[in-house]
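Entry 12.
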Amino acid sequence: MSETQLNVSTFLPDLAQGAAKLGADLTEQQSLLLMQFLALLNKWNKAFNLTAVRDPKEMLGRHLLDSLSLLPVLRIKRSKRPSNAFTILDVGTGPGLPGIPLAICMPDTNFVLLDSNGKKTRFVFQACVELGLKNVEVQTTRIENYQSPNQVDIVVSRAFASLKDFVESCHAVAGPNTRLIAMKGLYPSEEIADLPSFWTVVGSQKIQIPGSEGARHFIELARKS
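Predicted 3D structure (tokens):
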């Protein structure tokens, strides 16, 4: 058994159970690709220090299931524009989180995975090649320097320290219909109060990640018209 196949059978039941609790329905092929990605992340992490999480089972909860928690939200938004191109930008993707798991499960959606760390984007690019993902573009740059050739429908991120930094950094790529979704831990009341006046919270949701003790909140933001 190759290292990229290691643990696939071991963690598939945990993945299926966790995804079901999140309402993130997966096909058999999507589940296998997610396990392949987990194995690749585990393998590359040993040499390139892509994430501080070392245990593959912990990676399943803190990385894969955490990323998949966004899937029901994004699928609903995608379903409202079924015949149009739809682009999701993952800012500060690191080793492809949440972008790669979401791209695996939303093959009809274009994903741009952006990070300024070349070591991490090299892994992301190689992972996309090995997983056969045709709907992912990888960019090594800061969001402030990124120029999108197409409309960005949704920007997601787990990486920004504050909502103020997030919206200010993404202002140039955010059109009037673009939505920003920040994945936060505790509900960020102080960060919301500190938002620039031309941005507003249009939705929030509390999620419990299976196998994780801490809460997860999604904060959806939009530019004021």
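Annotation: The two ends are 56 Å apart (CA to CA). DSSP finds eight helices and seven strands in the chain.
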